[in-house]
Amino acid sequence: MAMAMAMRRAAALGARHILGASSSSSSGILRSRHMSVDAAAALERIRAAGLLRTQGLIGGKWIDAYDGKTIEVENPATGEILANVSCMGSRETSDAIASAHTTFYSWSKLTASERSKALRKWYDLIISNKEELALLMTLEQGKPIKEALGEVNYGASFIEYFAEEAKRIYGDIIPPTLSDRRLLVLKQPVGVVGAITPWNFPLAMITRKVGPALACGCTVVVKPSEFTPLTALAAADLALQAGIPAGALNVVMGNAPEIGDALLQSTQVRKITFTGSTAVGKKLMAGSADTVKKVSLELGGNAPCIVFDDADIDVAIKGSLAAKFRNSGQTCVCANRILVQEGIYEKFASAFIKAVQSLQVGNGLEESTSQGPLINEAAVQKVEKFIKDATSKGAHIMLGGKRHSLGMTFYEPTVVGNVSNDMLLFREEAFGPVAPLVPFKTEEDAIHMANDTNAGSLSDPVYLNYYFFLFSLVCQAL
Ligand code: NAP
């Protein structure tokens, strides 16, 4: 009993419970005795669609971890164990790389049109299984079902886009400086790509990496987050059904440092693409140096949202709400600081609090829910630490500021007033449903505060990416 509780606690803190070979069920699917009816029905629907995969995908085959170990995937809204997935490491990753490397020779030789057709079919299958994928995402990640459906469209759009772009990978002819020379730029796929993705967009972060890689003829080894592997595996199943050949897309999950090291050390992996925390991104960048891999990183953020005295208050409230509370504040483009000019501060704060009060916290499977749980106990503890730090330095809680009465990892949508630049809430990503309001006097002050961060720089594509996403969020909000 004590041991079970200790395991539960470890899982709640973000360290998932890894089971030995003998503990895993043959199907890989476990049912908690307390499985809620809705979750059970949703799982059944996903299983009936053939999309409840629990093994890794290597060379087109669904494979258990070689030592039989599994890892629990939990529903953060209820603590229910949804499934036991293979807990893989370096050996499985090496085999996945070998399979991707072999397939690279055939996949890269196809015409762009042939690759495009397979990608388009994958897109069609994702869309026709939209509801099952969204349910799976809500179950393992916790985001409200409406947001999950939105993510399926968004995630699928990358595949659709790159299915088209596959046919437009043009080269260049450059005027030479010597009359007897010709300068031609021919674009070639780099080879095997290692793609490491986070839990907050379980589908879109995968399709955004795999779509362009496959389109130009690369093959891929994907490592999804241990918190949300089920969506990744379901998407990979649909890729196989679409005719993307065995070995072109491989999925391994489990021991992240081991898998990461295997990808970094392999000379066959020519590129690493990663979305996740800055700390892990730095490790991957350093680890890529030995084999001189290309690296693309999308890391953490500290996005400001600025409201001036002359803002249309309704538009500002709507935009700020959307920018802050999407996925309960757990996105890299969430407004981490809301800077509000002094003349409108009080009016904005009271209208904003009213709007935040209307957010419905609950299980994402319920239609009315707009705020799901945080991903795990560690995420809640991080928010608590930030709130404690802010209040000890003079900020005041205007709304929320504590765990939600629903328990688990639910946290009350929170508004904190008088936040200043010496507080963690200002300096670091809270990654939770906490809106810090920061008063400012002049436009110069606001720009200075907005740029008072080490996240991004004007020449950094990640920074531009934020603008793009914020822009699209604002457009959605309007
Ligand atoms: P994370 O802890 O960095 O994890 C991201 C991925 O890296 C997961 O698959 C994780 O595996 C894996 N990983 C962890 N340690 C590793 C290692 N030593 N070697 C190789 N892989 C390793 O980040 P997260 O908590 O999942 O995601 C939240 C962060 O992502 C936030 O900072 C957010 O801003 C950022 N993000 C950025 C964007 C963007 O577009 N810029 C988009 C989404 C998220 P396990 O989960 O299995 O441990």
Q: What does this molecule look like?
A:
This protein is of the alpha/beta class. The protein has 2 domains: 2-298, Aldehyde Dehydrogenase, Chain A, domain 1; 304-477, Aldehyde Dehydrogenase, Chain A, domain 2 (3-Layer(aba) Sandwich). 44% of the residues lie in helices and 16% in strands. The chain contains 16 helices and 17 strands. The chain has helices at 2-12, 37-48, 90-107, 112-128, 130-141, 145-165, 204-215, 229-241, 256-265, 278-287, 313-325, 342-357, 377-392, 424-427, 443-451, 461-477, and strands spanning 18-19, 56-58, 61-63, 70-74, 81-86, 172-174, 183-185, 192-196, 219-223, 249-251, 269-275, 294-298, 303-307, 335-341, 396-399, 414-417, 434-440. The strands form 5 sheets. It has a 5-stranded parallel sheet with strand order 10-9-8-11-12, with helices on both faces. Strands 13-14-17-16-15 form a 5-stranded mixed sheet, sandwiched between helices. It has a 3-stranded antiparallel sheet with strand order 1-4-5, with no helix packed on it. Strand 2 (56-58) and strand 3 (61-63) form a beta hairpin. The protein is globular. Residues 1-17, 22-33 and 457-478 have low confidence and may be disordered. Residues 196-201, 223, 225-227, 256-257, 260, 275-277, 280, 283, 298-301, 332, 429, 462 line the site of NADP nicotinamide-adenine-dinucleotide phosphate. One of its GO terms (molecular function) is succinate-semialdehyde dehydrogenase (NAD+) activity.
